[in-house]
Amino acid sequence: HNKKVFKEGLLEKRSDGLLQLWKKKHCVLTEDGPHRGGGGGDAGRVKELHFANMKTVDCVERKGKYVYFTAVMAEGKEVDFRCPQDEGWNAEITLQMVQYKNRQAILAVKSTRQKQQLLVAQMPGEATRIF
C-alpha cells in the first residue's frame, strides 16, 4: 500500500470557524492527492483530499511571503490553504491533479474498450466461446 510521495511538509489550512484562523498541518502529497496529519489532539487522524473529489486549484495569489490558494472540491466545497512562496505547494498539487485526471481518463477508455470486446465476444450466434 505504498503510495508514491511527491511532496511533504507544512501547509496551512484556514479553519472553517468564525475566526478563520490558519492552522499548520503536516501534509503529504501522494498520487491520490494531499493528505494532512492533524496537529495536537488528532495526531492519529490523517485527512485526505482526494483528487477524485477535487475539481480545481483556484485563486492563487501571492501576498508577502505566502502563496494563497483554494482547492475546489466536486461538491462545491472550498478549502483555503497558504504556504511560503518558495514551497510551491499550489503548483505541485495542480500538476499532480492534472496527472491524476489523465490517468483516470486513460483507465476509463481502457475499461470501455474491454467492455466492448466482451460484448462482441458474447454476441449470440457467434461460434467463438471464451473459456
From TrEMBL:
InterPro entries: PHLA1/2/3
Keywords: Cytoplasm
Predominant cellular place of this UniProt entry's protein: cytoplasm
MF annotations from Gene Ontology: phosphatidylinositol phosphate binding
Intracellular or extracellular location(s): Cytoplasm
Gene Ontology cellular-component terms listed: cytoplasm
GO biological process, one term: positive regulation of apoptotic process
Segments passing through the bilayer: none
Protein name according to UniProt: Pleckstrin homology-like domain, family A, member 1
Species of origin: Scophthalmus maximus (Turbot)
